[in-house]
Design brief:
The complex is a heterodimer of chains A (565) and B (163). Chain A is α+β, with helices and mostly antiparallel strands and 565 residues long. Chain A is built from 16 helices and 20 strands. In chain B, 31% of the residues lie in helices and 15% in strands. The chains are: A alpha+beta (565), B alpha+beta (163).
């Protein structure tokens, strides 16, 4: 990486602040959110959702809805049972993983509050909301499964009838002799940490528009992954891939929640195909809170063995990860990303990681902000604090005794990743100085000694992250079915401009100025008159890029600039 | 249906609307002012903030019939031609990322500066507490409002010309 920067004289471009190119439309309201789209004859789709966490559907009567003026159709799950397929899980993490069928609209059973059981299609969203009230659904309640530990007990009710347990998979990784590391270790600390479930909540609620045109379908969606969505829609619906076009217009934040192939996207296509009319679905916030995939939700049991001087001998991590009711696009893989990050920036002799994926009758979990990696950072950093406390060491001192030193890079960690570069000594010294760490520690001691009514707490954390995830061949070994790459094309235009096109869309990251910068940095061109310096990356995935990866796994910057080379 | 007559960004509209129609749906779907987005439809997030007779309102919590006879200013009518000082300041201070909350932030800040032309940081935080941002965090938004205040954004917003 360093060689590349020197070779390209990157100092001219990298490190300078750049004005965002996206703002002119965003600050004036000239935006194109999916819910802005209006097409001739467009209909509005709305869903009846389960009020129960687990129940058998005994009746769905949609007949009254069709009698309301302005209602075009109403459907139950049974109406689409033959064609709706199963929502995809693209990351089967083990050979024996249990991946239950996941109908976009429930047919026989609901397994979380908010699961769609019926839908109406009407001239406007108000009529559609009225029509939802007329649909009669009856349920026979089944036992909910809420707690992961009791869900794994043999006598627990099953989330999916016919399965042997509520366990989806168990995935393990180990390196070094953990038994030896813990045997006779002077210090052993064991803790349980809870990573609470949360709702991602992008500012823009999800929205989908599907327009049929003969055999072809155009789908606009507030998505992070238009290209993946196109492939998956083809696989789920049977519509030939070449007849599907997916466009992500302006996207008002994702945070992982729009890295998904959703029931509503599939059903928008199926309803548009059935009615031969364009349809729109735009969720309300309360609907989104129930049905957008959730994040986190882990129980972490972490054990660390160390010498009296603080040197780490071994680390053991045992996770229970709540999958929710179904496995969605990358649900099972998210907690496993932590396997490569629990060791953080530290050296140790042995490491073992185990993750058990558990089904519960809750909204499925999936990628959210860092996806498995921040959970790991919390775990290791919290137990490092506990260890420092046990040993009576300053938490920064303990970290320094264990981290990879600047001279040791490149360094292959106990989790098998090679860190190419790092200088934790310099970064920490700088942070320590900026923060006034030593002075604040002194003040903290004084306040404690004097019994001051205002006490001072000081938190310390290191953080590193694998971005772009990994090279495609490594991902393949992890049974991950999408590559670790990005598409870019550089086009010379007749007017002398350069157009850089990528699948990494903006939705908040300032892709356009940085894309232009990275291309200029890596290209040989230094002229200020030929047009290169007004290079305009077009970040309009699905519309202009033939195939790409999208915006996820913190991957755009590791993957997009190299793609322009 | 109820007949309403109102001004939106200095253009007069007369429409028959259902009494239950929300102002934000009227603006977006009847008038076509899609620069005003819907974030929560429960008056929590403030993304749909517009000015009604110069005072900020969350347009998801106002009925279109309540706006009868009023003058509405949306983000699309805030400036006449160029940029309003707040729009410029949000760009200059990197006070936005995805931009979904930005129209509401700018409209709420417009009303804040009308009431208090030189607010302190704490007053800006209090004044914008009804507006949520999910990407940027609030620090740069505070800076942008302060920058706009220095640039004289308390001058009543120019409207008109955008239709």
């Amino acid at each position: 990486m360093t060689a590349t920067l020197e070779q390209n004289d990157a100092g001219q471009e990298v490190g300078k602040p750049r004005a965002r190119k996206e703002d002119a439309r965003l600050v004036t309201g000239e935006t194109n959110w999916t819910d802005n789209i209006v097409l001739p004859g467009m209909l509005h789709l709305a869903f009846v959702r389960s009020p129960l966490a687990h129940a058998r559907i005994t009746k769905v009567d949609t007949s009254a809805a069709g009698k309301l003026p302005g209602v075009i159709a109403a459907f139950s799950g049974a109406d689409f049972a033959a064609e709706q397929g199963s929502l995809p899980c693209a990351w089967p993490v083990t050979d024996d993983i249990v991946i239950p069928g996941h109908p976009p609209m429930a047919v026989h059973e609901v397994r979380y509050v908010g699961e769609a059981v019926a839908c109406v299609v009407a001239r406007d969203r108000y009529i559609a909301a009225d029509a939802l009230e007329t649909i009669d659904v009856e349920y026979e309640p089944l036992s909910p499964v809420l707690d992961m530990r009791s869900a794994l007990a043999g006598d627990s009710p099953r989330v999916h009838a016919g399965t042997q347990s509520n366990r989806s998979f168990e995935w393990v990784f180990s390196n070094g002799d953990l038994d030896a590391a813990f045997r006779d270790a002077p210090v052993v600390i064991e803790r349980n940490y809870v990573q609470q479930r949360l709702i991602p909540t992008a500012m823009e609620p999800r929205a989908v528009v599907c327009s049929p045109n003969g055999e072809e379908f155009t789908l606009w969606s507030s998505t992070q992954i238009p290209h993946v969505l196109r492939v998956m829609l083809a696989l789920v619906t049977g519509i030939p891939e070449q007849n599907l076009r997916v466009i992500a217009p302006d996207v008002g934040g994702g945070f992982g929640s729009k890295l998904q192939v959703t029931a509503e996207e599939v059903l928008a296509v199926l309803v548009a195909r059935r009615l031969r009319r364009p349809v729109k679905w735009a969720e309300s916030r309360s609907e989104g809170n129930m049905t957008v995939h959730h994040g986190r939700d882990q129980l972490q049991r972490i054990k660390i063995a160390a010498e009296r001087d603080g040197r780490i001998r071994g680390l053991s991590v045992d996770l229970l990860a709540d999958m929710g009711a179904y496995l969605m696009l990358v649900t099972p893989g998210v907690p496993l990303l932590g396997a490569f990050m629990f060791n953080g920036i530290y050296k140790m002799d042995a490491y073992a990681f185990r993750c058990t994926g558990v089904f519960t009758t809750k909204v499925p979990t999936d990628a959210y902000r860092g996806a498995g990696r921040p959970e790991a950072t919390f775990g290791i950093e919290r137990i490092m604090d506990e260890l420092a406390n046990e040993l009576g060491l300053d938490p920064l001192e303990l970290r320094e005794r264990n981290w990879i030193t600047h001279e040791e890079f490149p360094y292959t960690t106990i989790a098998g990743l090679t860190y190419d570069s790092g200088n934790y000594e310099a970064a920490t010294a700088k942070a320590r100085r900026i923060f006034g760490y030593d002075e604040l520690r002194k003040e903290q001691m004084e306040r404690r000694a004097s019994g001051d009514s205002v006490q001072l707490g000081i938190g310390v954390s290191t953080f590193t992250e694998m971005c772009g995830l990994a090279p495609s061949r490594v991902l393949g070994q992890l049974s991950y079915t999408a590559g670790g790459w990005e598409h870019a094309s550089v086009r010379m235009l007749p007017t002398g401009k350069v157009e850089v096109v990528t699948g990494s869309s903006a939705h908040g990251r300032g892709t356009r100025p940085h894309g232009a910068r990275s291309w200029r940095t890596r290209s040989a061109c230094r002229s200020t008159t030929c047009g290169c310096c007004t290079a305009t990356p077009r970040c309009h995935p699905g519309a202009w890029t033939p195939m790409a990866r999208g915006r996820w796994w913190s991957a755009a910057w590791p993957c997009f600039p190299p793609a322009t080379r | 249906m109820t007949h309403i007559i109102l001004s939106v960004d200095s253009v007069t509209y007369a429409d028959d609307v259902e009494p239950r129609l929300l102002l934000v749906h009227y603006l977006r779907e009847v008038v076509g002012k899609t620069g005003t987005p819907i974030g929560c439809d429960t008056s929590n997030c403030g993304a749909c903030t517009v000015l009604m007779d110069g005072v900020s309102v969350k347009s998801c919590a106002v009925l279109a019939v309540q706006a009868d006879g009023s003058e509405i200013t949306t983000i699309q009518g805030l400036a006449n031609g160029g940029w309003h000082p707040l729009q410029q300041a949000f760009h200059d201070e990197h006070a936005l990322q995805c931009g979904y909350c930005t129209p509401g932030m700018i409209m709420a800040a417009t009303d804040l500066l009308r009431e208090n032309p030189q607010p302190t940081g704490a007053e800006i935080r209090a004044g914008l507490e009804g507006n949520l941002c999910r990407c940027t965090g609030y620090q740069n938004i505070i800076r942008a409002v302060q920058l706009a205040a220095r640039a004289g954004a308390q001058v009543p917003a120019q409207t008109g010309g955008q239709g």
